[in-house]
Design brief:
There is one protein chain. The chain has 5 helices and 12 strands. With 236 residues, the chain is an alpha+beta fold. A 12-stranded mixed β-sheet has the order 7-8-9-10-11-1-2-3-4-5-6-12. β3 and β4 form a beta hairpin. The two termini are 35 Å apart.
Length: 236
């Protein structure tokens, strides 16, 4: 699996595991997602940015931004922002179906999923400590390069006979102020409660959302062998 060179701004690679975890609570990380279909010469590719504070996570694509907020009672509240109209739709935790795992949102792959994988190699120390995992499920092989002390996916691949998906980490920044500013910018967007959309069909933006049918996906579009989103996509 391709080794990733990180831009570890403000973090010493020799920091202790505890200090590294503290220093990496605020994260701006760029990722590339590629899908290679067997028989096709060109792979499909897209990019997204993972933004993270201790209790907020966002996956930012070209237009759509999926935000998850961890509430004081540990429930998760999703907000979907649309960047061009600068509008948002807020959901209540009760409107989200299925079990919501914060680790899936926070680090793109859940602690439970990593626990099912086999550790095959371990390299480096401190913030640069990287663990390599593998999981074989039928005809599917999943490989993960995991920056354990930063809780960041360095690289991941899901290989099937007809399709290979890869998730690759690019640059990473840990500057607190611009990350907080980005969340504040989204927070300033005009938002509508999901439950109130049907009462606002005269609003062109909301009318368009109704017609789109609320297609559910996270920005990463990354799924495990069972079709479950690894990128933190949620459903209603």
């Amino acid at each position: 699996m391709k080794k990733i060179i990180l831009s570890l701004a403000l973090i010493s690679p020799l920091a202790s595991a505890t200090q590294c975890a503290l220093d990496s609570q605020y994260v701006q990380a760029s990722y590339q997602v590629s899908k290679q279909v067997a028989g096709k010469a060109v792979a499909e590719s897209q990019q997204f940015t993972l933004w993270r504070t201790p209790h907020q996570v966002a996956e930012q694509g070209l237009e759509l931004v999926e935000v998850w907020q961890q509430l004081s009672n540990q429930q998760i509240r999703p907000i979907r922002y649309f960047q061009t109209p600068q509008r948002g739709i807020e959901y209540q935790p009760s409107e989200v179906q299925g079990q919501q795992d914060w680790s899936t949102k926070y680090q793109l792959v859940s602690d439970d999923f990593i626990a099912k994988m086999t550790l095959t190699d371990e390299q480096g120390d401190g913030c640069e400590k990287i663990q390599h995992y593998q999981l074989v499920q039928g005809d599917t092989t999943i490989e993960l390069a995991w920056l354990v002390n930063q809780k960041l996916v360095s690289a991941m691949s899901i290989a099937k006979p007809q399709l290979t998906q890869t998730l690759t980490l690019g640059t990473v920044d840990f500057k607190k102020a611009p990350i907080q500013q980005q969340f504040a910018l989204w927070d300033a967007y005009q938002t509508t409660d999901y439950a109130d959309i049907g009462d606002n069909e005269g609003d062109p933006f909301l009318a368009k959302m109704i017609n789109l049918g609320f297609i559910e996906h996270g920005a990463s579009g990354f799924y495990d062998a069972n079709g479950k989103a690894l990128g933190g996509g949620h459903s209603h």
